[in-house]
Amino acid sequence: MNSTQTIKGGPVTRLLLNDRGGRWFLGCLAVGTLSVLVLNLLVPASSPLHVSTYMVTLLGKYLCYGLLALALDLVWGYCGILSLGHGAFFALGGYAMGMYLMRQIGDRGVYGNPELPDFMVFLNWQELPWYWQGFDQFWLAAVMVMLAPGLLAFLFGWLAFRSRVTGVYLSIITQALTYALMLMFFQNDFGFGGNNGLTDFKDILGYDLQADGTRAVLFLLSSVALIVGYLLCHGLVSSRYGRVLVAVRDAESRARFLGYRVEHFKLVAFVISAVLAGIAGALYVPQVGIINPGEFSPIYSIELVIWVAIGGRGSLYGAVIGALLVNYAKTWFTGAFPEVWLFALGALFVVSTLWLPKGIVGIVEPLINKFKQRKSEPVMQEVVDHG
Known about the structure:
Elements: H1 11-15, H2 20-41, H3 53-76, H4 86-105, H5 118-122, H6 138-162, H7 167-186, E1 198-199, E2 203-204, E3 207-208, H8 212-238, H9 240-250, H10 252-257, H11 262-288, E4 290-291, H12 298-311, H13 316-336, H14 341-354, H15 359-385
Antiparallel strand pairs: 1-4, 2-3
Helix pairs in contact: 2-8, 3-8, 3-11, 3-12, 3-13, 4-6, 4-11, 6-11, 8-9, 8-11, 9-11, 12-13
């Protein structure tokens, strides 16, 4: 293509022009989403093709995990920041949404208090804490879903990156961060339900959370959020900013020597990643019906790293595929062989580390390219013969 030619199509088409894998991924995701909705809402339950509401909810949860994996891959795969605390941002977004859902219960709770959630009545709280004020409004909850994890990521990243903390030291600090938050949220007097967390949600925006239609809409929103998140991350890593991020990942000292404010590039990526993780948590909570301090557990953040490693670090759609496949395997194993799952997960991580450094995508992409090359060889030969 010479300099006078223009790329036809909309901004999304131009963005994905050189991302064949991304186009296939988004296309399959869109088709799969529409197919699930049609088979759930339009096909009768008596049909073998019917997709149950339980399965729709399960798939919606997987999509939230996919968005979380995408968020981690942005900072780990393209910036070299191995965060072992991304579960904290996911949980903060979930708690922000959970607070809104708790306020919507009103006097339908066990104790019938129109103002205080049940756990506050049980603990003899007399009034609603100041940090719960306003969460009866959806717009405030939506803002806090992004603001809470984004602000925490900004403060943490500003201090860590300016101090030039990198490598394993940064990973340990992020793990310590999520562990400290877990201990805080476990306390009953902290005002977030303690060990039990927030649950018994009734509705969202006036719609019954248990209704099939509401579940379908939440599934659709999860898919849309994943698509938008992918386009955002792909736009970032494909831009000049993304090229600088990769340079920071591969040779931070050299990038710094060339005059780039490395800490600023890291900070922007870290905050965007945290916001995406918070949105994933907010979509996750109304679908699973609970959020508790266990979501802050460092083991969940480590498991997230395994998803990305298995799918393919540095490949946005690979990270999502890894999250979907590993969580599907987790659902199957914990149902069929519950005592085997942790061993299987550990084996997957060892195999991906030793023999699949680029994950599943590192296997599939070369095979596809080789197949296309073989397919195009007869055509090229025919052109040469007739030339």
